[in-house]
Design a protein that fits this description.
7-stranded mixed β-sheet; 17% strand; alpha+beta; OB fold (Dihydrolipoamide Acetyltransferase, E2P); globular
Length: 786
């Protein structure tokens, strides 16, 4: 089946509307001009169309068909003008809200329009402000806002109303939300959903309760597969689902909607209803599903894309599906221009387009070497990955190598889990039936979880990829080459040449990739010394220090990025951490904590100051968790570690209350790690008389900031100062004052911004134990090892 070229006539409308929506939302001051310009061009094009229609056409004009071209242009410009006009109309209220509400104490009443989601700041939820009051003044209301809450209040769900004291700041350009509103911890009052929304909220809550008693990790997936609620998905499983390219299964995507529509269509067919009635039944069921899983913008988008795809496939008109898809995109963007910057919307459109346009020819190409059924099954996830992959690297610079295989394995289980989970949700008024259906849904959910765990554990599950636009273009080119190689070869010489060049390019790329993998996985580890005792990871602006004794490993802080930390652990062959220490909860010390999930026995953490700190601790999922206090001690292989600070509540949670650890053993030089203590806290530590100098290695506090107490370092008597710091960081770390202090005290200095990975070892000599220092990037005049 080929796609009629006439089906693509609506594509220019979608492209033009998308461009106008993006330009007007990012530059709202230009929205009126864009709308007027597009409207003026529509008038000109209409005049030309009328003129052409009033005179006889020539043979050449009939071949070019200027009437069709002008009609396409008119439709595209009209939709573009509508998108810009929507932005222009909303701009005054949005600008007034920003000007009036930012940097002021507010009283806000907002209606929740989307499910609350966890974020690094606590909970994040979209809403519409029904009223905003600053003192005695009422501010412009009716604008979309994003609420940030430290805790999720009871009853906070779609359709609920929240009353709270808050502060606000302007949202980023292009965002639908006008304001980001930070709700104060106390005083938030929630009016639960009412009417239909209350009924659906109760059904979702019942499903969460029913699945909560089943074995993990499959139980956490049931609400996500059925109604898009991922609140019970453990952090470790979430990372595994992403690595296996299965995370789309736990969101309400087009696939979920397609399952629901397909089931309704089949049931209608079994009842003998005609095709029109079957389609109507599918669409009505889809509408009910949207209400059940909450009619938030992402769900409406997914439902629209699904309805387009299902209508096209069920009616047997894939070409019509392309036209309807383009029309739907134009209509959605004209009504909601802020979708233009939504990656979720772009992925929905891309996946639907891939299903309609790319999957069938890929299946025909694969049939040359595979059975038809296998080719068809493989073509769908392959088309989706080829089209969506370049967009995904914009937020996650990596490519799932086994994503297609994982989807083939887990794909058959998703419909069963969705259908059974939905049935359990709807059967909530009958608890016994709901429990039985939930238990049945656990079986396919557990299979999906097991698939994610197995695939994510395979070597090279995530292939690192370039970030940003270069990564997008590179992966797009690779996708085009793969597509040309798979498609049936055409008879034209240019098609054959393109196919051969694509195959050659892929072979070269595969060779380069293989060489890169060999260097990263074999040569670099071979060049890295294995007899280290202390390792300071190169993780940018942050701390991540490993200490090892008799094969046991301690990690102190995680740095800001879990991927960078995972790369360091993998390079050093560290799979399990006996002890992990989170000195305090600044992002540059705990941002990589997700890399610890499922691999940590004991977690020692600093004082907890906010709800997010508690979530960071619980997300690690350590076998045992304790808060670090002075005098706490333990063993690491043959070494002994002790916590020296914080000693009291004199310093609030943060830098000056960092956990300070000392460690020493027969195979580990006496080392002290000072977290981010400032000079005042350093003086308090010195006067506390808990130190046991001399030390041989010190991790310089706060990345070598100027806020140091020289008397402390003089008392420590260390010969080596470690500074974990990012290249060209915004803080100017390490400061010259700190470097001069260390040099004046006779310390050697190793710093990750210049040296990369730093490894400290020991060598026995006739006069005692000597430290060795290996630098990944030795500075000029210094060898890699000292």
């Amino acid at each position: 089946m080929t796609v009629d070229s006439r089906a693509f006539r609506m594509v220019p409308a979608a492209v033009a509307t998308w461009a106008a929506a993006a330009a007007s939302t990012f530059f709202p001051e230009m929205a009126g001009a864009i709308a007027a310009g597009c409207g003026g061009l529509v008038v000109v094009a209409l005049a030309l169309l009328i003129r052409i229609r009033m005179r006889p056409s020539t043979r050449a004009e009939r071949a070019v068909d200027p009437v069709t071209v002008l009609a396409v242009v008119i439709v595209a410009l009209a939709f573009a003008a509508a998108a810009a006009a929507t932005t222009a109309v909303a701009a005054p209220a949005r600008e007034a809200a920003v000007a009036s509400a930012t940097s002021r104490a507010l009283e806000i009443t907002a209606q929740i329009t989307a499910k609350p989601e966890r974020s690094i700041l606590g909970w994040r939820v979209d809403a519409v402000a029904e009223s905003i009051r600053a003192g005695a003044h009422d501010l412009p209301a009716g604008v979309p806002v994003t609420l940030l809450l430290e805790e999720r209040p009871e009853g906070l769900d779609v359709g609920a109303r929240l009353h709270a004291d808050a502060t606000a700041f302007a949202a980023d350009a292009g965002e639908r939300a006008v304001l980001v509103v930070r709700v104060r911890p106390s005083g938030a009052v929630v009016e639960p959903p009412t009417g239909t929304m209350a009924v659906f909220a109760g059904l979702r809550a019942a499903l969460l309760a029913a699945s909560g008693g089943l074995p993990a990790p499959g139980a956490g997936l049931i609400p996500g597969l059925a109604v898009g609620d991922t609140s019970q998905v453990a952090p470790e499983l979430d990372e595994q689902m992403k690595a296996a390219s299965l995370s789309h299964l736990t969101a309400v995507s087009g696939a979920n909607c397609a399952i629901v529509v397909g089931l309704a269509f089949l049931l209608a067919a079994a009842l003998g209803l005609p095709r029109g009635a079957r389609v109507a039944a599918g669409l009505l069921t889809l509408g009910g599903f949207v209400l059940l899983v909450t009619p938030e913008p992402s769900v409406v988008r997914a439902a629209t894309m699904s309805a387009v795809a299902m209508l096209a496939l069920l009616l047997g008109r894939r070409g019509a599906g392309v036209a309807v898809l383009a029309l739907s995109v134009a209509v959605l963007l004209a009504g909601d221009p802020w979708l233009a910057s939504s990656l979720g919307f772009a992925l929905s459109v891309a996946a639907t387009g891939a299903l309609l346009v790319l999957a069938p020819p890929l299946a025909r190409g694969l049939e040359r070497v595979l059975p038809r059924a296998v080719a068809v099954a493989l073509a769908v996830p392959l088309a989706a990955q080829l089209v969506c992959g370049p967009l995904i690297v914009l937020i996650t610079p990596g490519v799932s190598l086994y994503g297609v295989a994982a989807n083939l394995l887990a794909g058959p289980a998703a419909p069963a889990a969705t259908i059974l989970g939905l049935s359990a949700c709807l059967a909530a008024p009958l608890p016994a039936l709901a429990a039985g259906l939930t238990a049945l849904a656990w079986v396919p959910a557990a299979w999906i979880a097991a698939t994610a765990e197995a695939v994510s554990a395979l070597p090279g599950a995530i292939l690192p990829w370039a970030e940003g636009l270069p990564g997008l273009l590179a992966l797009t080119m690779a996708g085009v080459a793969i597509t040309l190689v798979i498609l049936r070869p055409g008879r034209r010489r240019i098609a054959l040449v393109a196919r051969r060049l694509s195959a050659l390019g892929l072979l070269i790329a595969a060779g380069v990739l293989a060489g890169t993998v060999v260097v990263a996985a074999v040569i670099v580890p071979m060049r890295t010394p294995h007899d280290w005792r202390i390792a300071m990871c190169d993780i940018g602006q942050g701390d991540a220090v490993l200490l090892r004794s008799a094969g046991r490993v301690m990690l102190v802080d995680t740095g800001p990025d879990p991927d960078l930390l995972t790369g360091c652990l993998d390079r050093l062959g560290i799979g399990r951490l006996d002890v992990a220490v989170l000195t305090h909860f600044d992002l540059d010390h705990v941002g990589g904590a997700a890399a610890l999930a499922g691999r940590t026995d004991l977690l020692v953490h600093g004082p907890v100051g906010e709800a997010q700190d508690e979530r960071t601790v619980s997300g690690v999922g350590a076998a045992r968790t304790v808060q670090g206090e002075v005098g706490m001690r333990g063993t690491l292989g043959d070494a002994m570690w002790r916590v020296l600070w914080p000693a009291s509540a004199a310093f609030p949670p943060g830098n000056d209350a960092s956990v300070v650890v000392e460690i020493e053993g027969p195979d580990l030089p006496r080392t002290i790690l000072l977290g981010d203590l400032g000079a005042d806290a350093q003086r308090a530590l010195l006067s506390s008389r808990v130190l046991h100098p001399p030390y041989r290695v010190v991790k310089l506090s706060h990345h070598g900031s100027a806020d140091q107490e020289p008397a402390l370092y003089r008392a420590l008597g260390a010969e080596l100062a470690l500074i974990s710091v990012g290249i060209d960081n915004d803080y100017g770390h390490p400061r010259d004052e700190a470097l001069r202090m260390a040099q004046n005290l006779g310390m050697s200095i190793a710093r990750t911004d210049q040296d990369g990975l730093v490894l400290v070892g020991t060598v026995s000599t006739d006069i005692g134990i000597r430290l060795t220092l290996w630098r990944e990037r030795a500075p000029p005049g210094v060898g890699g090892a000292e």
